[in-house]
Amino acid sequence: MVQRAIFRCRNRECGHRWARDYPHRSPHGHYYRDPCDGETWVQTPGNDASKPCPRCASPLPRRSIVKGRYSAHRRCDARCENAVGPSCECQCGGANHGRGYLIS
């Protein structure tokens, strides 16, 4: 299961937005096993918020965790993929929410 975090730079002149996907929190609290080697414990998105903005290097961006809810009545479209807020209620159930801002 994947958890998506959407970040926004606090520098008003920059305003850059980006998103990252993380494995969902494990029963071990704020850590998960690195999917590359399966041995290393890595911290979850809360600590990624301490990294600076990739565009202007401004510290401490704002972070929102996407919370999706499936709705058969709302079609998923570009509004969902380019959304900047944390709430999603459409056919994707949050899987596509903020996808347009993903960085590797």
Question: How would you explain this protein's 3D organization?
Answer:
The protein has 104 residues and is mostly beta strands. It has one domain. It has 2 helices and 7 strands, in the order ββββαββαβ. The strands form 3 sheets. The chain has a 3-stranded antiparallel sheet, with no helix packed on it. A two-stranded antiparallel sheet has the order 3-4. The chain has a two-stranded parallel ribbon with strand order 6-7. Strand 6, helix 2 and strand 7 form a beta-alpha-beta unit. The longest helix has 4 residues. The chain is elongated and about 40 Å long. The protein starts with a strand and ends in a 14-residue tail after the last strand. The relative contact order is 0.25.
**Please, how many helices?**
2
Tertiary shape: elongated
Question: What percent of residues are in strands?
Answer: 25-35%
Biggest sheet strand order reads: 2-1-5
Radius of gyration: 15 Å
Q: What percentage of residues falls in helices of 4 or more residues?
A: under 10%
Count of individual beta strands: 7
Main beta sheet: strand number and arrangement? Answer: 3 strands, antiparallel
Number of domains: 1
In angstroms, what separates the terminal alpha carbons?
17 Å
Order of helices and strands: EEEEHEEHE
- Secondary-structure-based class equals mainly beta
Mean pLDDT: 82
Low-pLDDT stretches are none
